[in-house]
C-alpha cells in the first residue's frame, strides 16, 4: 500500500516537477540571452522594466517628503531672516529719524547764530524745555536763566519773528510769555503794517494761537498777506522784527477801526530753539516844559 501511495504521489507531483524544470530552463536561457545590439543580458532589461514604476514611485515619494521638510526648514530660515531684516530696518529708520532731527536742530541753531551776527543786539541761544500744560500757546520754559544773563522783560525771538518776553527767571531757566497770551495786553506790541504807514496795538487771542491788531483806521487799505513788524515804541521789542502775517481783515469805517487777525511768524506751536535779545528800550527823556494848566493839575493831585 505504501508503494502504491508513493507511485501515486509521484504521478501527482510529476507535472509540478516538470513545470519547475521548464521554468528553471527558461530562466537559465533568459539569463544567458543577450541583446544583439547592446550585448546586455535581457533578464537585466526585463528586471529594470519591472522595477521602473516602483523605483519611480519610491523616488517621487522620497523627493516629495524631502522637499516638504526642506521647505519647512527654508520657511523657518526665511522667517528668521525676515525678522532680522525688520529689526535692521527699524534700527535704520530710527537712526535716520535721529539724524534728520539732529540736522534740523543744527540748521535752526545755525539760523539763530546768523540772526545774532546780523542783529545789532547780543543774544542768548536757548532751547525750549517745557510748555504750559494748561494752555499750549501761552507760555514756554527755556534752559537759560540769570546765570546766562537773562533778565525779566527781555524779548525772545526766532528767525521767523517775535516769540514773547521773559516774565520770570531762575538761575538756570526762564519763563516766557508768548505774544499769543491774552495777558500780553499789558505789554502790547506796537506793530506797523509793512505795506503802509498804519500802526496799531497787537494783542494775543489766547488758545486759538492768533494775534489781533487794534486801533487801525477803517480807512486804511489792509489786505490778507500783509506783514506786520515791530516799531520799537512798546518798550519791549526792538524795531524791525517780524510779528506775523495778516490772515483776516474785517472792514471798518471812518469811525470804526478795522478788525485784523494775524498769524505769528515765529511758528509758536513748533518752536524748539529761541534767542533772548539782551535789549533794553532806551529811557524816555522827561519833559522839561509843560503847559501851565497841566502843571497846576498835576500839582493838585
What's the average pLDDT? Answer: 76
Tally of DSSP β-strands: 12
Instruction: Please identify which CATH superfamily of the largest domain we are dealing with.
Output: Rod shape-determining protein MreC, domain 1
Shape: rod-shaped
Structural class: alpha+beta
- Count of discrete structural domains: 2
CATH architecture assignment of the largest domain: Beta Barrel
User: What is the CATH fold-level name of the largest domain?
Assistant: Thrombin, subunit H
Major sheet strand order: 1-2-5-4-3-12
Q: Report how far apart the termini are.
A: 171 Å
Poorly predicted residue ranges = 297-301
Instruction: Tell me the name of the CATH class of the largest domain.
Output: Mainly Beta
Q: How many separate helices?
A: 3
Sheet-strand content, in percent, reads 15-25%
Main beta-sheet annotation? 6 strands, antiparallel, barrel
The ordered string of helix (H) and strand (E) elements is HHEEEEEEEEEEEEH
Assign a percent range to the helix content: 25-40%
From the alpha-carbon coordinates, what is the Rg to the nearest angstrom? Answer: 50 Å
Question: What's the gist of this structure?
Answer:
With 301 residues, this protein is of the alpha+beta class. Helix content is 39%, strand content 23%.
What does this structure look like?
- The structure is a single chain.
- The protein is an alpha+beta fold and 301 residues long.
- It folds into 2 domains: 41-118; 123-277, Rod shape-determining protein MreC, domain 1 (Thrombin, subunit H, Beta Barrel), CATH 2.40.10.340.
- The chain is 39% helix and 23% strand.
- The chain has 3 helices and 12 strands, in the order ααββββββββββββα.
- It has a 6-stranded antiparallel beta barrel with strand order 1-2-5-4-3-12.
- It is rod-shaped, with a radius of gyration of 50 Å.
Amino acid at each position: 500500500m505504501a508503494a502504491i501511495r508513493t507511485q501515486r504521489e509521484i504521478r501527482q507531483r510529476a507535472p509540478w516537477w516538470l513545470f519547475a524544470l521548464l521554468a528553471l530552463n527558461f530562466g537559465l536561457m533568459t539569463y544567458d540571452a543577450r541583446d544583439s545590439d547592446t550585448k546586455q543580458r535581457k533578464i537585466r532589461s526585463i528586471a529594470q522594466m519591472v522595477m521602473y514604476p516602483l523605483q519611480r514611485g519610491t523616488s517621487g515619494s522620497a523627493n516629495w517628503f524631502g522637499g516638504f521638510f526642506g521647505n519647512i526648514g527654508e520657511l523657518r530660515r526665511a522667517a528668521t531672516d525676515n525678522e532680522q531684516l525688520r529689526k535692521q530696518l527699524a534700527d535704520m529708520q530710527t537712526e535716520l529719524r535721529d539724524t534728520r532731527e539732529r540736522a534740523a536742530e543744527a540748521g535752526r541753531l545755525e539760523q539763530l547764530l546768523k540772526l545774532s551776527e546780523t542783529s545789532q543786539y547780543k543774544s542768548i541761544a536757548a532751547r525750549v524745555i517745557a510748555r504750559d500744560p494748561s494752555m499750549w500757546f501761552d507760555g514756554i520754559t527755556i534752559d537759560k536763566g540769570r546765570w546766562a544773563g537773562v533778565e525779566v522783560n527781555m524779548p525772545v525771538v526766532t528767525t521767523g519773528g517775535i516769540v514773547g518776553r521773559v516774565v520770570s527767571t531762575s538761575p538756570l531757566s526762564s519763563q516766557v510769555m508768548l505774544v499769543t497770551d491774552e495777558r500780553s495786553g499789558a505789554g502790547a506790541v506796537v506793530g506797523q503794517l509793512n505795506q503802509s504807514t498804519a500802526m496799531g496795538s497787537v494783542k494775543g487771542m489766547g488758545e486759538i494761537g492768533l494775534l489781533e491788531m487794534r486801533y487801525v483806521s477803517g480807512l486804511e487799505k489792509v489786505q490778507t498777506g500783509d506783514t506786520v513788524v515791530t516799531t520799537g515804541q512798546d518798550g519791549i521789542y526792538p524795531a524791525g522784527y517780524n510779528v506775523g502775517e495778516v490772515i483776516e481783515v474785517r472792514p471798518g469805517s471812518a469811525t470804526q477801526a478795522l478788525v485784523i487777525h494775524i498769524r505769528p511768524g515765529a511758528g509758536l506751536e513748533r518752536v524748539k530753539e529761541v534767542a533772548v535779545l539782551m535789549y533794553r528800550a532806551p529811557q524816555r527823556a522827561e519833559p522839561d516844559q509843560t503847559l501851565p494848566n497841566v502843571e497846576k493839575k498835576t500839582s493838585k493831585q
